[in-house]
C-alpha cells in the first residue's frame, strides 16, 4: 500500500480510515447490517450453523473494525518514513521483495509497528459503542470490561465497577510501560545519534 | 567491459536524453545539481524506468523499450553507492556487507566478509551498527557491501558530498585505490570538478539532461568546445567573439583583439580563459597584454580574485569584464589598486568555442 500511488489511493485510504472518524455506534450499525441474521455474512455463517451476532465473535469483529484504522495509519506512517535509498540498496544487492520486506522494511518499521499495536490494543480494550450494538452484554459471554463498568455503575455496584477500573488501569499501564521500555532499549542499541 | 546507454526519460523540468557508449573503465559524470546525472544512475540501476531506449552493460541487456525488456533490479549485477550510503541501520557492519551474499555457503560468506573487512580497513568494527561508526567508515562499509556482490558496473552517486574537506581528500585517494582493483566498470557522478578530474580519466559533462561533452579529461578541461562545458569545468571568463584572421579574434564586449594559439572556427563563437591563467605583468607593450582597472576584489584564505575592466575606470563594483585569480603574494605586489595594472592573456590558455 505504501508503494501504491494509483488514482484509487485516496479512496482506499479513506475507506480504511473511516471507522476512526465515525461514531462507534455507526460502525456498530454497519457491522450489524453485515453480520446480523439478515446480513450477507450472517446468512452465510448460518449455513454452517454458526451464529455470529451477539456472540464473542461479534465482540472481536467490532474491536478489529474499530481499531484497524489506528493500526493501519500508524504502521503506514512507519513504512513511509523509511529512507527509500535503503530499500533501493537492498534491491541492488540482489534481494527478493520478500527478503527486502522481512529483513529491511519490517525491522526498520518495528518501533512504529509496536506503537501501532499498543494503540490498537488500547482502543480495543476500551471499545464500547460498537461492541454493545453487535455483541450485547451477556455476562460471562460477551460482556467486555468497559460495558461491565457501565452496567455496574448504572446498577449502583460501585465496588464491582472499581475492581474493573483497577484492572483496566493495570493492563493499560503495563502495555505502555513495556512499549516505552522496548523502544528506548532499541534506540540505545541502534538508532542512537552517531557518526 | 563495454557499456552502452541511449535513453530518454521525461522529467519535470527537462527531458533526460542521454547517449553514452564507452569501453573505458571509469567514467566521471560531471554536472550541476539537477542536471539529471543522478537520474541516469537510477535508470541504469533499474530504480527508475526510462521512457524509451536501451541500456546494455557487459553484453547484458538491462533495458530495451522496443523488445520490452526491463530486467528487475536484483538481476542487474550493479553496485550502487548512495549519497547517504543507505546502510541498513538494523544490521551490524558485517551483516551489512554479507547482505548480498546469500548464494554463498555459511563458511564462504564468513570468509568473504572477513576478506572485505580487511581490504576496506574495517577490522574490529564487525559488531558495530552504522550509527556507531564515522562517516568515512560508513562509506567504506557501503563500498564493501556494493563490491561484495561482484557487480558488472559500480554506480557512485556523489559519494563524497557528505564528508568534510579533509576527510574528502583522504577518501578520494582511498577510492582511487579501490577502483584500481575493481574489475568492472564505474560511473562516478559528481558536481565537483576537482573530484571528477582526480578520479576519472574520462569525463562526460552533463547539462539539462544531455551529455554536453564526453572525452579525455585534459582535453575537456583545457579546450572545452562549448560554453556549458567551459562553465561546468570551472571557466569564469567567457565572451562572444568574432574571427579577424586565422589566429586573431575581436571581443566586442571587452573592446580588445586577442591572438590565440588555435585555429579559429567558425567565424563567430565564444572565447574563454580561466581566471587562474591570467597573469599580472609589469608593462602592457607586448601582444595580448592589456591595461585594466580593478573594479572589485574578494579574498579567499589563500587566493584572491580580482574583477577587472578593460578600457576605462569602472563606475561601480559590478562594472567589470572578467575575473582573474592569484595567490596572496602576487596580489600584494600590486601597490595601488586604484591605478590601472597590466595583464597578459597567454595565447596557449585562450580557447575558442563554437557554441
TrEMBL record, chain B:
Q: Which UniProt keywords apply?
A: ATP-binding, Nucleotide-binding, Transport
Please indicate if the UniProt record lists Plastid as a keyword: no
Whether Magnesium counts among this entry's keywords is no
Source organism per entry reads Acetobacterium paludosum
Question: Locate the ABC transporter domain: which residues?
Answer: 2-233
One MF term in GO for this entry?
ATP binding
**InterPro entries for this protein:** AAA+_ATPase, ABC_SmlMolc_Importer, ABC_transporter-like_ATP-bd, ABC_transporter-like_CS, P-loop_NTPase
> Could you identify this protein by its name?
ATP-binding cassette domain-containing protein
